[in-house]
Amino acid sequence: MLWKDYYSPTTLDEVLDLLEQHAGQARIMAGGTDLVIELERGLRQAPTVIDVTRIPDLDAVTLDDDGLIHLGPLVTHNHLVDSNIIIERAFPLAQAAWSVGGPQIRNRGTVAGNVITASPANDTITPLMALDASVTLASKQSRRTVAFEDFFLGVRQPALADGEMLIDIAFPAMRETERGCFIKLGLRRAQAISVLNVAVVLDFNGDTVTRARVAMGSVAPTVIRAPQAERVLVGSVLDDDAIDETARLASRAARPIDDLRGTAEYRREMVRRLTRRALRQLRDATERAGWPQKRAMLWGPNGPQPSRLAASAVHQNNGQQPIETVVNGKRVTIRNANGKTLLDALREDAGLTGTKEGCAEGECGACTVWLDGVAVDACLVPAPRAHGAEVVTIEGLAASENPTVDDVHPVQRAFILEGGVQCGYCTPGLIMAGAALLRENTSPTMGEIKQSITGNLCRCTGYYKVLSAIERAAADLS
User: Fold this and answer.
1) Where are the chain's structural domains?
2) Closest alpha carbon to 337 in 280, 275, 291, 385
3) What global pTM score does this model have?
4) Are the CB atoms for 46 and 35 separated by under 8 Å?
5) Which residues in the chain land under pLDDT 50?
6) What CATH superfamily is the domain 403-477?
7) pLDDT, position 205
8) Which contiguous run of DSSP H or E holds residue 144?
9) What per-residue confidence (pLDDT) applies to 401?
10) Is domain 73-131+172-284 annotated with CATH 3.30.390.50?
11) Which member of 186, 268, 469, 478 lies 3.0 to 4.6 Å from 192 by CB, making a disulfide possible if both were Cys?
12) What sections of 288-408 are H helices per DSSP?
């Protein structure tokens, strides 16, 4: 049992009431990509969980009349990746969001959750620091705004009081004279936590730098800036000497430690190299060169459309409130699953064992399902989140495309014909990811197909047959 009581309020006022009522005992659930794992491992206790994902209008990215960009508390990483405002006016943040996990993680994980977790390796914090971000925190009694530099007190120590909720992240939109970029070093190309990351935002008057922000992640107990490096940049032209000196000073500002992902010495050297690379990109205006024009979101054809509740819901483990949901097109009542993940509820209570548990922490994608049409890792979704929602699993995939069809889905057929299956354990998740891609992009490039399965691990095939199967299914559907 991961929690005792699970609330799904429909207004922000209800959330603040519940936080006050359950002081010291409640945790807010949005994406759950950190919290569910912490609860599973016993690293955190949360007798009361408050799911805020059913509250309308908290997932907006907006630009106000004062030139400030606002991120609501339910803005996910994929919302940022899809936002023209972010791509055009806060590009380092778009790059950072695109580097987080795979599509399933980006569809659930929120930027606010990334900030609240306050890990120095969390990718979106670094560009937000470089963009002069602040957070607004609300409680039943008050609201306050805190600058990013003051919000992070230590490793996983945000300046968030009991009873407070982060309700807004705000920062100035980049001006036409500003350019910026984000570079991440990980141990693999996707689904990798940062060994370190760097974000640089510069303002120019012609070729001269008039303002500089250099932020670094995973090199100190919190994300930090490099003030000496920034001062050297201001008033200079980005020639090789200025770039090398700035990179050297950024490396000096780092305070890394040795850990499993790298030594302190290695991190200092890579800070120097990544800072130099970022500055050269900004000098040469090549920072956007690798940005994909089409990105695999796994949202389906209509984009994210989270189900709404007509009234607040409460699921208690000592009560009999069932989870009423639609699974594979059929109305289903699931009992005694209020303290479980959606993965466990599907397998143990709904009898749908096609969805596999591989890692139980969002690393492998074997448990991929569609929740309200969006591909997610079922191991990181609380079962009560399915109340009033629609879920599609591998068992219902063909019927989800056409309820009158009893045959397999085109992606399933292609996996058979192309030999995309070996041990088969990862196959349901890969098929769900591939099918989600083809719902939103019927003619994907090979690059886009690869993007779609970055959240899925296969230990047998080397992916070649998986990729050719999805490519074949796309051709069959076109």
Assistant:
1) 73-131+172-284, 403-477
2) 385
3) 0.97
4) yes
5) none
6) [2Fe-2S]-binding domain (1.10.150.120)
7) 98
8) strand 143-147
9) 66
10) yes
11) 186
12) 342-344, 397-401
